[in-house]
Design a protein that fits this description.
Two copies of one chain form a homodimer. Chain A has an eight-stranded parallel beta barrel with strand order 1-2-3-4-5-6-7-8, surrounded by six helices. The first copy, chain A, has about 220 residues and is an alpha/beta fold. In chain A, α2 runs parallel beside α3 and α2 runs parallel beside α10. Chains A and B meet through α3, α4 and α5 of A and α3, α4 and α5 of B.
């Protein structure tokens, strides 16, 4: 279990593969899926499900906490500092239309992590100013999970590598196929959803991504 | 400003008219509407807007707090203890699929109020057991604001009057026209939305409802 801010920041500093999962399964099926991802070596798991009601979401969050407690996998809740607090999550991730990092900090206290989605370099600088612990940068490519109007793409990633000194995860349509292009920007951290959760074999998909990420980090 | 639990409970014990409003207006228009309702004597205002993003919802909540701070009108946030905390609301109202009263209490602390929507006498007893401060009981009649599969109606209200000793607000399609039927159950507290917010003149609508409620309470 990662409890102190120091331990959490340490895990974060080494994290390369961040996976977003939804909770739309039975408790058993959800448990099996999460356990596989944790065993496969996913560094961060985020519960992100806009369709679940609050009560079910908290149930899944508590399950996720239990399944990651004795591991090195960080567990992050999307959008909701209240659910993060109640489930004892390692942190909260917010987008530009969600609560600000500053407001989230007021609810969750000093020890948990805060991540912020950014789509422009201006938003990345703002996240730094708001004391976010990490940022997501994208969308990099079109994705089956989420629809976007514009794509800052790899140009944005290059800019972040040059200018922002905060753990930054490239996100949006990243797969084993286009990962080499992402790595060429200098990014060594990615966040994926469909590439892992919709893969025929999630464990193999995680292994393949981690291999590529680690090969470049040596 | 109502700050202590005692003051809040005092306001609650005298409250008869509870109005749910959404935040889908400009800040100016929202401010005008809220000020009118407060001046007209609404006892409790709940911000309930499932369409607003979190950031806008918190903005409206903070505005509502400012507009009610120097008044006797209680301000309640729907569903979200985090937003209630950040906006310094008087309390949180949850439904059967939202966070439990017990979980909400953990986030908002001992001083704020918790309300729970109930549709059966069993749920009303559970709300009492969970230390809710008040309950909503309904739906009483079909409503333009929210769709329901079944209507416990006035039979449920009569049962609550007989068995439950907690401030209880009848909700669901209540208007000046059917209010006499609600009052005949023994209920002296109602929660409305459209009957006030969609009225040609909100102030007149509030006055009319309050007159009926007070006439029966003497």
């Amino acid at each position: 279990m990662t409890q102190s801010r120091t331990t959490r920041l340490q895990c974060l500093s080494q994290a390369q593969l961040y996976v977003l999962i939804d909770g739309g399964f039975s408790a058993d099926e959800f448990g099996r899926r999460v356990s596989k991802l944790v065993a496969a070596g996913v560094d961060i798991l985020q519960l992100r499900d806009k369709t679940l009601d609050d009560r079910s979401q908290l149930e899944r969050a508590r399950q996720l906490r239990e399944l990651t407690a004795a591991t090195r996998t960080l567990f992050i809740v999307n959008d909701r500092p209240d659910i993060a607090l109640l489930s004892k999550a390692d942190g909260v991730h917010v987008g530009q239309e969600e609560l600000s990092a500053q407001d989230v900090r007021q609810v969750i206290g000093p020890d948990r992590l805060i991540g912020v989605s950014t789509h422009t370099i201006g938003q990345a600088y703002s996240a730094v100013a708001e004391s976010a612990d990490y940022i997501g940068c994208g969308p990099t490519y079109p994705s089956g999970t989420k629809q976007f109007a514009s794509f800052p793409g790899t140009a944005f990633l290059r800019q972040v590598v040059r200018e922002i000194h905060l753990p930054a995860f490239a996100i949006g349509g990243i797969s084993a196929e286009n990962l080499p292009d992402v790595l060429r920007t200098g990014f060594r951290r990615i966040a994926v959803s469909g590439a892992v959760t919709r893969a025929a074999d999630a464990v193999t998909a995680v292994g393949q991504l981690l291999d590529q990420l680690r090969a470049e980090s040596q």
